[in-house]
Design brief:
478 residues, alpha+beta, 3 domains, globular, DUF4280, DUF4280 domain-containing protein
């Protein structure tokens, strides 16, 4: 009983003079023009926490790193658009009685209470629906009855008679990005206005439980019509986690935890110029994973003895030849040519996309080469020629080996590689409509698609003409 009173006392200390609670990571935020609420994240905390380990925010924590958006913006009701929040500082009220040293600005800033407001440059008024604080939700009773979550095992979960949040326990074998997926009936989904959030805690070696992050549940409708509500969460191997699912309108659902795996099915798409057929594609890793969650990324790289994949090429013979000729141009120049520099420039890629199909193709084919200075390009080109001569379609996996001397694999044969980049080549079955392309499990990336091209046009003509045009466009921009 004494421990419970102490926890209540410590919890109440996180209120200001006016009785409002201080806001912490995981607070629910809404905008007067937004179609939905969002969960406030905090990439780096400021070292001040509630008794249950939730970090307090400051008046400066109103950037897009913390607040991703509120669905659709209805400022113009006749023409709603996707929310792109640009908020000013939180208005810290006169009742705020706490300052925190904010490393982002290098000085003390006021802590924020739940009655604080912020305005968007489009005129929306942003406020807190919750402070993010709750009485500690990981007492012994909840931990004792936590559901055991096993990767890739789909199970049913029913809310207990106490009607409290769903609590689960998980310990994964691989570090990386995971999807916690909830499957519900269409009729149930129609009655839900707030999908809810997932809160993650970790248990240290001393047995203490600490809150580490909140993730907003979002909806995805599969091609089969099945409704999946999910959150992308970051988990490290060998660590015990507790997952708290705050889904106020759900009482029973099927769920599964699985490593993220980006997928795309080649299809025909309608454009302003008619129907186009996707025939090839390039998967490129999202570098935000490395930038925002460096510890998780480092663990993932060290655990993966095949090296960390930066990109995967799925190319038919025409695009493979185009890539080969691009590499020839780079090698022949003996340095990074101006046209390669321009194409790799984000503005040049946009120019290519806005102008011609060939510009898109050249840009996409070079997206996976952030290693443009690599001396192994000759080896890459030779392997590309060899595999292309025996296959109509090829797959190329570009990997980075951050730890020279580690075992990695080529053609199922372990070798020691001391260069930063490494390439795996293989033949592929036909890349036809309906063929599924895949990224790398536990990583997050995106697909850039390549469309059916007029193969009667010389590859050299495509390169020479488009390079000149893109360079000219870049000169005009600069």
């Amino acid at each position: 009983m004494a421990d419970g009173i102490q926890k209540m006392y410590e919890h109440q200390e996180m209120k200001g003079y006016g009785g409002y609670e201080y806001v912490v990571r995981g607070a629910e935020v809404s905008c007067s023009y937004g179609s939905k609420t969002c969960v406030l994240n905090l990439k780096d905390d400021h070292g001040v926490h509630t008794s249950d380990g939730r970090p307090l925010i400051t008046e400066n924590d109103s950037t897009t790193d913390n607040i991703k958006g509120f669905g659709m913006c209805n400022k113009n009701r006749s023409k709603p658009c996707e929310c792109d929040p640009k908020l000013g500082k939180w208005w810290a009220t006169d009742n705020s009685n706490m300052k925190i040293f904010d490393t982002a600005v290098g000085e003390e800033s006021y802590a924020v209470m739940e009655d604080s407001l912020a305005t968007c440059n489009k005129g929306g008024l942003v406020s807190f629906k919750t402070s993010g604080q709750t009485l500690p939700s990981y007492d012994n009773v909840k931990i004792k009855y936590a559901v055991e979550i096993v990767e890739d095992e789909k199970k049913n979960w029913s809310r207990k008679s106490d009607k409290k949040d769903f609590i689960g326990h998980v310990k994964v074998k691989n570090s990386g990005i995971y999807n916690f997926c909830i499957y519900i009936d269409y009729n149930i989904r129609k009655s839900i206005t707030d999908l809810g959030s997932i809160f993650i805690y970790w248990k240290n070696m001393l047995g203490s439980i600490k809150y580490i992050g909140a993730y907003e549940l979002i909806e995805k409708v599969k091609g089969s019509g099945e409704i999946c509500i999910y959150a992308e969460i970051i988990l490290n191997s060998g660590i015990e986690y507790y997952i708290e699912i705050d889904a106020p309108n759900m009482y029973q659902f099927d769920y599964v935890l699985k490593g993220n795996l980006d997928q795309h099915i080649l299809k025909k798409v309608k454009t302003e110029n008619g129907e186009r057929e996707e025939v090839s594609g390039v998967w490129v890793i999202n570098k935000e994973h490395e930038d925002i969650y460096p510890t998780n990324y480092e663990k993932m790289v060290k655990e993966n003895h095949h090296g960390a994949t930066r990109s995967i090429y799925y190319l038919n013979s025409w695009y493979a030849l185009l890539l080969e000729k691009l590499i020839d141009n780079i090698i022949d120049s003996r340095s990074i040519p101006r046209w390669v520099s321009n194409i790799l420039n984000v503005t040049a890629i946009k120019v290519g996309m806005d102008s011609t199909s060939a510009g898109v193709a050249l840009s996409v084919l070079l997206l996976g080469f952030d290693n443009i200075y690599d001396a192994n390009l000759k080896k890459f080109r030779d392997n590309l020629k060899k595999v292309s001569s025996n296959n109509d379609y090829i797959i190329i996996e570009v990997k980075s080996n951050r730890y020279p001397g580690d075992w990695i694999y080529e053609r199922d044969r372990p070798v020691i590689v001391y260069n930063y980049y490494h390439y795996n080549f293989s033949g592929s079955s036909e890349l036809c409509i309906g063929r599924q392309l895949e990224g790398v499990k536990y990583e997050k990336g995106s697909f850039k698609l390549l469309y059916k091209f007029d193969t009667s046009i010389s590859v050299n003509d495509v390169i020479n003409n488009e390079i000149k045009r893109i360079c000219d466009d870049m000169e005009g921009i600069n």
